[in-house]
Design goal:
nucleotide-binding; P-loop_NTPase; ATP-binding; single chain; Dimethylallyltransferase; mainly alpha; tRNA (Adenosine(37)-N6)-dimethylallyltransferase MiaA; globular; two-stranded parallel sheet
């Protein structure tokens, strides 16, 4: 079975997250965030992280996985 990766790119506050969640729910997929700030715990203001309810509804990866003082790349 061939697997494909769908990439959603766009400007800040353009609706990428909403589109990704709708698409992931439609096709039964998961979300892999590659945002440089969403990876850090506690950086919730200004990052538009998905809500706990949104994260519970479908798997999200690479969100809140490092502390702000840690180097992550």
């Amino acid at each position: 079975m061939e697997k494909r990766v769908i990439t959603i790119l766009g400007c800040t506050a353009s609706g990428k997250g909403s589109l990704a969640r709708a698409l992931a729910q439609e096709i039964g997929s998961e979300i892999l965030s590659v945002d440089s700030m969403k990876v850090y715990r506690g950086m919730d203001i200004g990052t538009a992280k998905p809500t706990p309810q949104q994260r519970a509804a479908l798997p999200h990866h690479l969100i809140d996985v490092a502390d702000p003082w840690e180097t992550f790349s």
